[in-house]
Amino acid sequence: MHAQPLAVIPVANQLGEGIVWDAHGQAFVWTDILGCKLYRLVWGTDTPTAIDLPERLGSFALTSDPLVIIAAFASGFARYHLVTGNCEWLARPDLPDGVRFNDGRTDRMGRFVAGTMVEDAARAGGTDCGVLYRLEEDHSLSTLLHGFHISNSLCWSPDGRIMYHADSPAQAITAYSYDVAGARYQKVIAAFDDGHPDGAVVDAAGRIWVAMWGAGCIAVLDAAGARLMTIPVGASQPTCPALGGPNLDILAVTSARTDLSDEDLAQQPQAGALFLFKTNAVGLVEPLA
Known about the structure:
Blueprint: E1 7-9, E2 16-22, E3 27-32, E4 37-42, E5 49-52, E6 57-62, E7 68-73, E8 76-81, E9 87-91, E10 99-106, E11 112-118, H1 121-124, E12 130-135, E13 141-148, E14 151-156, E15 162-167, E16 172-179, E17 182-191, E18 196-202, E19 208-213, E20 217-221, E21 227-232, E22 238-244, E23 250-255, H2 262-267, E24 274-278
Antiparallel strand pairs: 1-24, 2-3, 3-4, 4-5, 6-7, 7-8, 8-9, 10-11, 11-12, 12-13, 14-15, 15-16, 16-17, 18-19, 19-20, 20-21, 22-23, 23-24
């Protein structure tokens, strides 16, 4: 594929994240967590719309109602109406101080899964308080995994039987057997020395596309974890990839400006932008929750 982006959308997100392709609305949708906004870029346009949110949004799920998302806000799960702002809280676990929700994605069964991260270890009582939760059909919460610092890289194999997940500071992606009963450890499939795995997505061929925070690239892995390709991104902190567009062959990558110095920002003025690349891959339609 071409290393040069097809387009760069200069949104200057503080912490762009959680991007998905909305096949029904033909749009890329993502969150700026620190900016408390939800962005939507309709295919064929170059200016996204932005919606103000009541709380930081770590990740979200699309639903059959195009105006409603299942939100993993900082403090819990809610059905959120994008026009009226109506927020129906579904589940708010008792999170330790200094812990918030972060990365999430809908599994192949249509259940929304999201994990927490430790922002302030002193307040939280340690760096291993992160938990990966699944919102069940009755809105109860199941704990899939626990003992993490920053839950990330959540995605599933095309058949939904393997779940991939990372604790970003550990610089590794782990595969789990996955079904309605939960997630069971299989093995670490990839370890990195060139950055920290952030958001990830799986394509129709089962390849894993991982945003490498700090390394300024997307790493493309096969299902066994071998690196197939590295795609440079014009920002040192890419955060999450999605495969979308009318033919599901456009790679969209969010990025972040947070924690960058003035000197860093002068060297990478596109930090926080949305990057679009044409690929030879084909993505999978995002399940609805």
